[in-house]
Amino acid sequence: IMEVVYVCEWEKRPKNNHCPSIPLVCAWSCRNLIAFTTDLKNEEDDKELSHMIHIIDTEHPWDVYSINSGHREVISCLEWDQSGSRLLSADGDGEIKCWAMKEHLVNSWESIQSSSVDGDPIVALSWLHNGVKLALHVEKSGSTNFGEKFSRVKFSPSLTLFGGKPMEGWLAVTVSGLVTVSLLKPNGALLSASESLCRLRGRVALADIAFTGGGNIVVAATDGSSSSPVQFYKVCVSVVNEKCRIDTELLPSLFMRCTTDPVRRDKYPAVTHLKFLTRENSEQVLLCASSQMGSIVECWSLRKEGLPVNNIFQHRSPVVGEKQPMILKWRILSATNDLDRVSAVALPKLPISISNTDLKVASDTKFCPGLGKFILHQITYHVFMNLDLCTGAHLFFFYSCPQLHMIRVSPSMGQMLDMNTLLRHLLFLLEYCMVTGYDWWDVLLHVQPGMVHNLVEKLHEEYMRQNQALQQVLATRIVAVKASLCKLSSATAARANDFHAKLLLIAISSTLKSLLRPHVLNTPDKSPGDRLAEICTKNTDTDIDKVMINLKTEEFVLDGPPLQSLQQLIQWVGDFVLYLLANLPNQGSIVRPGFGFLRDGPSLGMLREMMVMIRIWGLLKPGCLPIYTATSDNQDSMSLLFRLLTKLWLCSRDESHPQEPDETLLDECCLLPSQLLVPSMDWLPINDGVITKIQSKHQLRLQFGKPYTLPGLNPNSQMEIFSRSPASQRMDNLRCLHMGICPTEESKACTRCGCVTMLRSPNKTNAMKQWEQRWIKNCLCGGLWRKIPNT
């Protein structure tokens, strides 16, 4: 059911140097970023401690970014926000810090805000809820409609601004029983307030925070003794006269069942773990009581029950419309037998409860992510301090000094599944990531190379069954998912390059079309870009000039500077068309990059539209045209390529009945290399991450701070054709610029696809700056950026 994927450890250090101790806290974000803490001490002076926060992305675990947090006491809590781009840290002195990416890089962080409850240690910490909740319907996993599988649940934010926009901020619980709230105002100022959880303040050893659909916050707290009740409080946050106000209310409490059992009453004296099952489910809680030798875990659920009526009132005549009074009461759902001492508990982040209905669905479908609770026991030669789960609840990590272990857990929890059922489970999780925007790296760990083709095909089939509006929303995300899948198998590696090229093609097309403006001021029914697409679809003429006649060329009139600054993007389009047509005769070789475009009618149509657009702009500004090296001085290269591209597009525009290219077209394409110099397209490099190396059962041994060198590829391997020699030109994959063999400019790379681009912009024109701003936070594929060292 479980296997170690990789182990990453600290480099051995001299005795007189700093060394990391056992960490205290760790957390996993929805973008597959891991944060964990250590205390660095100087062995010559044990009193000197630096409380460190370390952040890694799971694809490049050796590239650790270590922050000297500046906390005066040991860090007690770490909490990611819903987007996975900001991190909260809290310590034993009541100080809370908010960390954000510097220049949107996963390996560069800075503190942007802080709040404090002086001298009062923080025991629980959470961001306020933003009101976004997506329900997961496992019982409808076989449905073809994404709206039935994943539905938006009515869920109110913890606090709203004018117009209903959720207000950002965080909430913490202290050891003395205080709840403190800090709100981030739109102008960047911080609004803070504190209030007692109840009138009689008492010690809080453990606490957790959850949210209700009505916008309230629920806090669970215990003083650490299993003989004391576990208390629950409702917390309401509001802003009155520019001041933060906190109102609290006591909710029904519970006693652990093990304390009422005469055999176990004194066996487990301490409550060591307290967690709500999910942050949006305040009605189900997990408790763990422990002794020095063992532990027991209980799950409880809050239910509405009818209040019994005294016999005196049972015989009176009921009033019309009168209902039986109801009360809320905690009922135990399940409990474990006696366990070895539990060191850590991790709960899934999928929005699933453990009601009888959910357990029956899991039994019927054999789909268990979201229902598993991972409990780590203490063993003799390691002390595990903490662990956390990823989104899909089938991957978790733990840290034992000085190593971080990544462990893969079967989504079926060890049940034997046939291939179709396994593919359906993985497809369901990929669809969930695609709809929510969560990173799908953890799902890829369960995909074997032989599954890739079927998963890509089934994912496309499910996507094509959705309505047009949803397809437009998910258009680029599904291409990114397909690209990630195809990298897992050498047989489909070329298609991964095609999907990345398609992402760039879609982005360039939308950018160029956005430059078009209607000639008259009144808003037309269709934009110039839409009219261009409609005319190019209807007009099947192979002469580019005849297609231009039907367009309102005044809508294409632009100033010279924007066109000239976008020349490198226009050049990429021209080179790509020439490359595809020149390789059409070699279409039998599936491994060749570009093969996927030869039958992709929509993409060929998009290229055709851009060729028309570029042709018109070339009349206004010849310097923006793509440059071709022709063997004849009177060769009209664009007309030739447009004619051949149109013939190829006509063969594949009807996706249900594609036709084979005729012999005439193949012969003309065979002649292209003798007429025009065919460029060598600069495909994305082989990803330097670990995902392509951990499909086997052998675990990787990695080291923090030391880049992992992928073992040499087999010279006969199909993936060898995508690799670069050390003397090859480096490419800025976003700006389509050559950076030289040994670039001196600082660069950043995508954590997902490996796309490389310069960190600083060399452009000064607005048109190119707007293009660059689109990718300031994320790559074309949606991946995060990380700074990479100079070559």
From TrEMBL:
Gene Ontology cellular-component terms listed: mediator complex; nucleoplasm
SMART domains: WD40
Domain Mediator of RNA polymerase II transcription subunit 16 central helical bridge: 429-617
GO biological process: positive regulation of DNA-templated transcription; transcription by RNA polymerase II
Ranges of residues in domain Mediator complex subunit 16 C-terminal: 718-787
Every Mediator complex subunit Med16 N-terminal domain range: 111-361
InterPro entries, alphabetized: MED16_bridge, Mediator_Med16, Mediator_Med16_C, Mediator_Med16_N, WD40/YVTN_repeat-like_dom_sf, WD40_repeat_dom_sf, WD40_rpt
Compartments reported by the entry: Nucleus
Lineage: superkingdom: Eukaryota
UniProt keyword list: Activator, Nucleus, Repeat, Transcription, Transcription regulation, WD repeat
WD repeat residue intervals: 68-99
Function: Component of the Mediator complex, a coactivator involved in the regulated transcription of nearly all RNA polymerase II-dependent genes. Mediator functions as a bridge to convey information from gene-specific regulatory proteins to the basal RNA polymerase II transcription machinery. Mediator is recruited to promoters by direct interactions with regulatory proteins and serves as a scaffold for the assembly of a functional preinitiation complex with RNA polymerase II and the general transcription factors.
Assembly notes: Component of the Mediator complex.
Family: Belongs to the Mediator complex subunit 16 family.
Protein name: Mediator of RNA polymerase II transcription subunit 16
